[in-house]
Each structure stands twice: as C-alpha cells, then as structure tokens.
Design a protein that fits this description.
The complex is a heterodimer of chains A (178) and B (428).
Chain A (H helix, E strand, L loop, with lengths): L8 E5 L1 H5 L5 H10 L5 E6 L4 H9 L2 E8 L2 E8 L3 H6 L3 E3 L2 H10 L4 E5 L7 H11 L6 E6 L7 H6 L3 E8 L2 E7 L1
Chain B lengths: L1 E2 L8 H25 L10 H31 L6 H23 L6 H25 L6 H29 L6 H33 L7 H24 L5 H24 L8 H12 L1 H12 L5 H41 L6 E2 L9 H24 L2 H26 L6 E2 L1
Antiparallel strand pairs in B: 2-3
The chains are: A alpha/beta (178), B mainly alpha (428).
Chain lengths: 178, 428
C-alpha cells in the first residue's frame, strides 16, 4: 500500500452507524460516488474494512490504512494513468452516423453474423466463439434482436469495445472490436 | 455517446434460492394433497384446501416468479435491480411467512398463528413491491411488458391487503358480509390480477424468444391489457363497494376477451416459429396455454349455474381454482423451469469459458428423459383429478394425488441436478 495524498480529504466516520447496529455500506458507496478524482476519501472505522478495500480496488481505487487512537483510518483515492484508461467505459449506444463512421473505419475488415434466428443461449455462444478468433484489426458486426444484457459484462471482461445501434423494437446492431 | 451499464444481471445468489424453495414447496403441496384425501371433495374453503392453495400460489408460483423476475428485469427494464440485499432479506422473510401461513391453515389456527403469519407475509410482499417499483422508476424503457408487470404488482398489493383483512377478520370480526364474499375478491385479484397479468407480461417477452419468431403484432397484447384490467377492476369495485354481482357477465366477457387476445398472440408466435422441434419445456408451455381456456369455460358454467345442487357447484369451484393453479400456472412453471434455470446456472458456470473451451449447453444440465416422464405423469394427474372432482370419486382423488406427487418428485430430481451441476470443460 502506498502513501496517498491527504490534502483534499473527505471524511466519513462510520463508527456511530456501526454502533447503532446498521451497515454503513450504502453511506460509503454514496460517498465514493460523489468523490472527485482529486479528492481522497477517509473512512474511520473500528476495524480494517478488507471487503471494502477489495471492492474499491476493482473500481480503480488505491488504499492506505493507518491505525491511530484505537481507530482505523482507511484512505481511498482514484488511481491515475494507465489503469484508469482500462476502467473507462467502452460499451455504449451510438447514433447511426457515429456507428457507420466506426464501421467504415475498418474498411473491408468486417466479419458479419446474424444471430436473430438462434435460440438462447446460442447468440451468446456464437458471438463469444467469433471474437476469440477475431483478428485485432477486424470488427465483428452482429445483427441481434436485443441488447445482450448477459453478454456485455463478459465482453467488457475480455477487453472488447462494443458500439450499439438500436434500429427498432427487436432489432439492434452491434460492433465488437478490440 | 450513451454509456451502457453492463452489470445489470443479478447475482445468482439472489435468484437460485427462489427456484429451490419453489420446487420444495411444489413437492410439499403435492404431499398435502395426498394427505388431504377426501377433504379435497369437500367445500372449496375448507382449511386443508386453503392451506394447499396458499402453499402452491405463494411458495410455488409466486416464489419462482420472484426469482425469474429478478433475472428478467435487466432484459425488460434495461436496468439493474434496485437492491439485491433487500431481495435477499425478502426471500427469507417470505419463505418463513409462507411456511407459517400454510401451517396455520392446515392446523386450523385461524384466530391464532394465522394473524401473525399474515402480517409477516404482508411485510415481505411490501418489501418486494417496493424493490420492483423503485427498480422500474430508474428504468427508461417503457414497453407493454413492463406495463403488465407493474400493474400485476399493484394487483398483488390489493390481493395481500384483502388477504390480511380476511385474516384479521377471523380474530376481530368486522366484515359486514360473510368472509367468503371477500375471499372471492381476494382470489380473483390474486389469480387474474397478479398471476395472469404478470404471466402475460413475461410470456410476451419469453414466448417469441423461445419459439424464435419475429415481427409479431404487439397490439393484441396491448388490447389484452385493457380488456383484462377493465373487467377485473369493474368486478372488484362492484363486489367490494356495492356487494352485488349484476355485472358478472360483462366482467367475464371483458376478461375472457383479454385472455383470448393473449392466446391469439401466442398462437401467432407458435405458427411463425423458426424453431420447429419443441423440447419438453416448450411442450409444457403450449399445454399450459391450452389449459388457460379451461377456467374461462368453468367460470361461465359457474355463472349460469343451471340450478345444479350446491354441493356439486362447490366441487366445480374447487376445480376452477385447481385448473388455474395446478393447470395453467403449474404446467407453465414445469416447462419454463427447463427454459430458464439451466441457462441461469450455465451462465454462471460457463460464461468465462465459452469460445475458449468446449462447454456443455444449458440443456445438458438436466435429463430430458425425466422431463418427458414428468410431463406424462403430470397430464395423467390432471386428467384423473379433474375426473375425480366432477364424479366425486375418492379412489380417483387418491390415484390422481399420487400421480401429482410423482410429478413433483421427478421435477425436483431434475431441479437439483441443475442447481448442483459441477463445472466441466474440455479443451477445444
């Protein structure tokens, strides 16, 4: 754990909440949400909040733990640089113009599949198989019935970008690329 | 740019317990049907029938719907569930209150335990209602499916409030009319308002998805919504505030029209399906939709009533409830479990491996042979129990009850096969 910048502190003392028998989790997450990138969040607690540290690490926060006067002070600050780039959202809905521009930028390096006639979970299986053999400079163009809610987190985990165009009820197009 | 939330899918720890509890509750309700024996031929409001009804509609039907709804919310609402923690607490409280409620009916503790268990049930259902309404609030997607779901949740609220009042009345006796009058409203708000509307809402998403059919006429679903709701609303208002049933035929006509519009939508989807071979899950679904016509016919028979002796009409009233709960609803769940739960478990175990290794498919998580046996036993049970209620035959009641119990046992074997599935992958 590194030493964090403590000039611009936001402090949240959760000891009274814990004392009253409640779980401070929601308060903490609300504070995290409001936190600016140049601020550091200080949580004062009676123990080291390991699950919280892990959870916020996943969200791109660095942490530091200091014990003083019988209390545990945990500091969180948004990581900067390369890691932040990875955390940035690469899955979004776009309008037709932007969608077509991205598609055109790949030239003829386009692989097209239509999964609308497949039964669940075949669309997901087909797409995941395709992207595993997709060349880095190629885009996978998918005709789909709906935004694949269960597939998106998996594509995100595998570091793919996804651009979605909604045409009508029961028809969307996806561009999936590295 | 319009960033999409990608973690809308609920945690499996929220969804799975609902399916397990529902399977066990179905099994228990069939054991109780065996134990109730010739009480099943007695009045429809007898405590044993009422106990079985509540374990079936709450423990089996409603519990599995909650689980399935949590899973479906990202698809229908395009947003995540408001609170998973609330859903988890809700599950335990709901499970406890169903068990207590069923027990208090079964042992005829109408002034004692029923009072506490119905209040507990009210609290747990209020938690569920709050969770879904707050989820819907943050959803930008307003389609006909979510309209059905949200309206059905308001009917669930009406049902549980009426149910609680009936339970309180056993203790404090404040109703002006017999409680059977309120029971009638409670039952219809629950079966038509909650179950039927919710099922139409969910089914109009899922049926075209599983049949794989495109470009269906959603207008039918839209009209169905207004027909069923206006009929039910008219019925409940007249019964509750005027205590008469002069409009019963109009109510029946409105609701039946709505039902047939929905069935016509489902029929379109069936005819245009790209998936020609139906698996047992979808066969059960088709059977369920056909069975939906049975209560429509029985209710008009009860309305006309032909001056038949009262004792017979009471058994037909039991058959009416039975045809909805153990016919339409149960057949639908028996089939849809195979279409949803294997997928949910599969998603959890294999999504990391798909495309990288050879994985089983959702249908490999259960035995299709057992599912086929389950379907035939179920159809046998349904036919024999229907004959038993019409002919007042104790022997048939016993035979049918054991067939239904066998159905529940086979269903549970497959259910546990699915939830206890161990991950296995091979290299590509």
């Amino acid at each position: 754990m590194s030493e964090l910048d403590k000039n611009n502190l936001v402090t949240l003392d959760v000891r009274p909440t814990i004392q009253s028998g409640k779980d401070p989790y929601n308060d903490i997450m609300a504070a995290v949400k409001d936190l600016n990138d140049d601020q550091t969040l200080e949580i004062i607690n009676v123990f080291e909040p390991i699950p919280l540290i892990n959870k916020l690490k996943e969200m791109g926060f660095e942490s530091e733990v200091i014990r003083k006067d019988g209390a545990v002070h945990t500091y969180f600050r948004k990581q900067s640089g390369a890691i932040e780039e990875k955390q940035k959202h690469h899955i979004y809905k776009s309008d037709a113009e932007e969608f077509d521009k991205i598609l055109a930028s790949f030239g003829d390096k386009v692989r097209t599949i239509d999964v609308r006639a497949l039964e669940m979970p075949e669309p997901m299986v087909t797409i995941l198989k395709e992207i595993e053999t997709l060349e880095p400079d190629t885009v996978l163009f998918v005709e789909h019935k709906r935004i694949p809610q269960y597939l998106l987190p998996e594509l995100e985990d595998r570091n793919f970008k996804v651009v979605i165009k909604e045409l009508e009820e029961n028809h969307v197009q996806l561009l999936i690329f590295k | 740019m319009n960033n999409l939330q990608t973690d809308n899918a609920p945690s499996i720890t929220v969804v799975k317990p609902h399916f397990i509890f529902a399977g066990i509750a179905f099994f228990i309700s069939t054991v109780l049907i065996v134990l109730a024996d010739n009480d099943l031929l007695g009045p429809y409001f007898g405590v044993k029938i009422v106990a079985i009804t509540h374990i079936a509609v709450l423990g089996w039907g409603t519990m599995i719907i909650f689980g399935a709804l949590y899973q479906l919310i990202p698809i229908v609402f395009e947003t995540a569930l408001f609170s998973e923690r609330l859903a988890k607490i809700n599950f335990w409280l709901f499970a406890l209150s169903i068990s207590l409620l069923g027990y208090s009916f079964w042992v005829n503790s109408l002034t004692g335990l029923l009072f506490y268990s119905s209040l507990l049930l009210l609290i747990s259902l209020l938690m569920f209602i709050t969770n879904v309404l707050l989820t819907h609030k943050s959803s930008k997607k307003k389609n006909i499916q979510s309209k059905f779901i949200i309206t059905s949740i308001y009917w669930l609220l009406v049902t549980v409030i009426l149910g609680t009042l009936i339970a309180l009345n056993f203790r404090f006796a404040f109703f002006e009319k017999t409680y059977l009058h309120y029971l009638k409203i409670h039952a219809h708000a629950g079966l038509v308002g909650w179950f039927l509307l919710l099922i139409i809402g969910v089914a109009s998403t899922l049926i075209p998805m599983f049949f794989v059919s495109h470009n269906l006429n959603e207008k039918k679903i839209n009209y169905s919504y207004y027909f069923i709701n206006s009929g039910l609303l008219l019925m409940v208002i007249e019964w509750l505030f005027f205590g008469t049933d002069n409009l019963a035929y109009i109510d029946w006509l409105l609701i039946s029209t709505g039902v047939f519009l929905f069935l016509s939508f489902a029929w379109d989807s069936y005819k245009q399906r790209l998936r020609k071979n139906l698996d047992t899950g979808m066969k059960h679904t088709v059977i369920s939709l056909l069975l939906l016509t049975v209560p429509v016919l029985i209710s008009i028979f009860l309305l006309i009533n032909f001056n038949i002796e009262r004792i017979f009409l009471m058994r037909i009233t039991t058959l009416y409830g039975f045809s909805i709960i153990f016919g339409f609803i149960t057949s639908l769940i028996l089939g849809q479990t195979y279409k949803t739960l294997p997928f949910i478990i599969w998603l959890e175990k294999y999504k990391k491996h798909v495309g990288k290794a050879k994985t089983p498919m959702p249908k490999d998580l259960y035995s299709e042979t057992l599912a086929v046996y389950q379907m035939y036993l179920y159809l046998g049970a349904l036919a024999v129990l229907t004959a038993a209620l019409i002919s007042n035959a104790v022997l048939l009641i016993r035979t049918g009850s054991y067939l239904l119990l066998a159905t529940a046992i086979i269903y549970n074997i497959n259910l546990f096969k699915i939830v206890l599935h161990k991950t296995k992958t091979e290299k590509l």
